[in-house]
Design brief:
TIM Barrel; Immunoglobulin-like; 6-stranded antiparallel beta sheet; 36% helix; binds alpha-D-galactopyranose
C-alpha cells in the first residue's frame, strides 16, 4: 500500500497528545508497582477493583516495556525474497548474519515475513506449508546461532499474500508461535479491512477504526498471555494515527507508512515524511518507516548511505532487507558502520527531526545521550550543488560557533563553522556526531 505525504497528513490531522502513564515506555511499570503497594492501604472492595484495573491495562505496557528498549535490529525476508523465502534461506541468513559480523553489530532478529503459512487442521491448529517443514527445529537452529526469530500473521482471514491469517484463532496462534520459540510477531492488517471493518461497519469510519484497534489489542493480549516475550510489530500502514494508540495495545513498533521499494523516490518519500512523529517514539515503542532497502534494486552507494543514515536519525528499526549471500563489501560496510548504528541505537531513544531545509538540502538533528547531537545534511537534489552554494546555518540548529565532531562515514574529525559552504554529491549525506555541541 502506497501512501502520499498528503494522505499521511490527512491521517495525522488532530493528533491527540499521548496520555501519560498509559502509553509511555519506562514510567508505567514504576507506577504499577507503586500502585500495587498503595493498594494494600485500601479497603477490600477497592483493593480488588484496583488490582482488576492493573490486570486490565497495566500488563500490556509492562510486557511491552521490557522489549525493544532500542529500535529492533535484524533482517526480514520480504524486501528481497518475497514469496521465495523458505527454511533454507532462513538458516543460511542466520549463518550469514554471524559470518558477516552483522550479528556482532547488533542484527539479532531473523524475521520470516508472509508466505510460510499452510492450512488449519480440524482443531484449528495452523500448519506451515511445505517451504517450512519444521518451524520448531528452524527456531532452534536460529537460536543456536545466538539470534532470535520472528514470524508474520494478519488479524484478517487472509494475509496480504493470500495465506491463512489469524482471524478467530488469535489465542491459538499466539500459543503456537510461543511453542515454536518465536521472539517477534509482525501483524499485518491485510484482509481484516475487507473481511471485518468494511463488512461490519460499511459506512462508519470511526467504528471501522475501533474494530481495527480491538483486533490489534486482542493479539497483544494473546501474546502476553503466552508468557513468552515477543516483540509486537503492528503493520497497518500508519492509518488512524497508529502512533497515538499502538503502545496501549502492547506494540513495540508500528509501521507509519505504506510499503518501501528499492528506489530513490520511495526512500525519499518514506524517510523525509517522518518529520513530526518524533514525539511518539521512545524506548519500547518505535515508529517504523519499513524494512531497509540498503543493497537492493539500483540504489547508488550514496543513496544507500543516505537511506541508512536517515533511518538512524529516525531511530527506526534496522531490519536489513537484502540478500546476505550476495552482499557487496560496500553494502556490508554500510550496514555494519558501528558509529551510524550507535546513532540509531542511542540509549536516550529520542527520534531526530528536520531542523530546516534550504533548496534541496535537508538538515536534520537528533539529540543523543550525554548531551551529544547528531547532525545530518542530506543532498536530495539531482545535482552535486543543490543550492548554489549551500552554506550551513548553525544558528538554526541552536549551535553557536565552530563545532568539532566526527564524520561518521569517513571516520575523521570534522569542524563545522557558521556559514561554512558544504558540497555533497547528489543524494549523498554528511553525518556528524558532536559529543560536545555548543
Ligand atoms: C504488506 C506489508 C509488507 C509485507 C507484505 C506481505 O504489503 O506491508 O511489509 O509484509 O504485506 O504480503
Amino acid at each position: 500500500m502506497i501512501m502520499s505525504p498528503e494522505s499521511r497528513q490527512l491521517l495525522t490531522v488532530g493528533r491527540a497528545p499521548r496520555q501519560p502513564g498509559v502509553t509511555d515506555g519506562a514510567e508505567p511499570i514504576r507506577r504499577i508497582h507503586i500502585g500495587i503497594l498503595r493498594c494494600f492501604c485500601l479497603s477490600l472492595p477497592r483493593r480488588i477493583a484496583a488490582l482488576a484495573l492493573v490486570a486490565l491495562i497495566g500488563i500490556p505496557n509492562a510486557r511491552a516495556q521490557n522489549l525493544a528498549q532500542t529500535p529492533p535490529m535484524g533482517w526480514n525476508s520480504w524486501n528481497y525474497f518475497g514469496h521465495k523465502v523458505d527454511d533454507k534461506v532462513i538458516r543460511q541468513t542466520a549463518d550469514l548474519l554471524v559470518a558477516t559480523g552483522m550479528k556482532d553489530a547488533g542484527y539479532i532478529y531473523v524475521n520470516i515475513d508472509d508466505t510460510w503459512e499452510g492450512t488449519r487442521d480440524a482443531n484449528g491448529l495452523l500448519h506451515t506449508n511445505s517451504k517450512f517443514p519444521d518451524m520448531k527445529s528452524l527456531a532452534d537452529y536460529v537460536h543456536s546461532r545466538g539470534l532470535k526469530i520472528g514470524i508474520y500473521s494478519s488479524p484478517g482471514s487472509r494475509t496480504c499474500g493470500g495465506f491463512e491469517g489469524s482471524l478467530g484463532h488469535e489465542e491459538q496462534d499466539a500459543q503456537l508461535f510461543a511453542s515454536w520459540g518465536i521472539d517477534y510477531l509482525k501483524y499485518d492488517l491485510c484482509s481484516f479491512d475487507t473481511d471485518v471493518m468494511r463488512k461490519q461497519a460499511p459506512n462508519d469510519k470511526a467504528e471501522q477504526m475501533r474494530l481495527m484497534r480491538a483486533a490489534y489489542a486482542r493479539m497483544g493480549n494473546a501474546l502476553r498471555a503466552t508468557g513468552r516475550p515477543m516483540v509486537y510489530s503492528l503493520c497497518q500502514y500508519g492509518s488512524d494515527a497508529v502512533w497515538e494508540w499502538a503502545p496501549s495495545v502492547g506494540a513495540n513498533l508500528w509501521r507509519t507508512t505504506g510499503d518501501s521499494a528499492p528506489t530513490w523516490d520511495r526512500i525519499h518519500l518514506l524517510g523525509f515524511d517522518q518529520a513530526g512523529l518524533e514525539q511518539y517514539s521512545g524506548p519500547g515503542h518505535w515508529n517504523d518507516p519499513d524494512i531497509l532497502e540498503v543493497g537492493n534494486g539500483d540504489l547508488t552507494l550514496e543513496e544507500n548511505r543516505l537511506h541508512f543514515s536517515l533511518w538512524a536519525i529516525l531511530a527506526a528499526p534496522l531490519l536489513a532487507g537484502n540478500d546476505l549471500s550476495n552482499m557487496h563489501p560496500e553494502i556490508r560496510a554500510i550496514l555494519t558502520n558501528r558509529d551510524v548504528i550507535a546513532i540509531d541505537q542511542d540509549p536516550l531513544g529520542k527520534q531526530g527531526t528536520r531542523a530546516y531545509t534550504e533548496g534541496e538540502m535537508e538538515v536534520w538533528t537528533r539529540p543523543l545521550a550525554s548531551g551529544a547531537l547528531a547532525v545530518a545534511l542530506f543532498n536530495t537534489g539531482d545535482d552535486r550543488l543543490p543550492t548554489h552554494p549551500f552554506h550551513l546555518n548553525l544558528g538554526k540548529l541552536g549551535l553557536h560557533g565552530t563545532q568539532t565532531g566526527k564524520d561518521l562515514w569517513t571516520g575523521k574529525t570534522i569542524s563545522l563553522s557558521e556559514g561554512q559552504p558544504i558540497e555533497l554529491r547528489s543524494h549523498d549525506v554528511l553525518l556528524v556526531r558532536l559529543d560536545s555541541p555548543k
